[in-house]
Q: What sequence folds into this?
């Protein structure tokens, strides 16, 4: 008889996205992403961080101040990193993300052919960039669904 309390695909892929977020060096916001094929194979993962070659110890991580002295000028978001980390066709795939994508990531998601976004948190729902993301997703027929937490707790000893 098979085990009965195994995790669902959604729990698994969102878990991978959330675990990936823990690689981020950002002191305020950690976002992970997991791109999955139609047959439930992980194609790529990513998290928000400095671009390759830009050492994150010398990078600014501030949220406020002059744009060039904040993280916003330099950080690649988790969704973008997951897309850029893959070297093939993402058409028809779905992406699991910790935080609803910003408008810049929405453009990359649409352009890459991803057709579904499953997100855990939408804490910036009223911001212009998330409103723009939803508008673009609606126009381009990219489905977005809030992940419904099961409340299951999984502990990893690392």
A:
């Amino acid at each position: 008889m098979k085990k009965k309390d195994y995790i669902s695909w959604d729990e698994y892929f969102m878990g991978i996205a959330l675990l990936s977020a823990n690689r981020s060096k950002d002191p305020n916001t950690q976002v992970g992403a997991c791109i999955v094929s139609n047959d439930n194979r992980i194609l790529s993962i990513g998290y928000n961080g400095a671009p390759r070659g830009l050492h994150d110890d010398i990078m600014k991580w501030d949220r406020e101040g002059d744009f060039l002295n904040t993280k916003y000028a330099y950080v690649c978001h988790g969704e973008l990193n997951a897309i850029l980390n893959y070297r093939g066709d993402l058409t028809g795939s779905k992406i699991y993300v910790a935080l609803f994508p910003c408008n810049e990531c929405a453009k990359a998601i649409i352009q890459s052919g991803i057709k579904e976004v499953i997100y855990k948190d939408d804490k910036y729902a009223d911001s212009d960039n998330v409103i723009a993301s939803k508008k673009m997703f609606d126009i381009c027929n990219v489905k977005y669904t809030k992940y419904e937490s099961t409340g299951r707790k999984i502990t990893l000893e690392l």
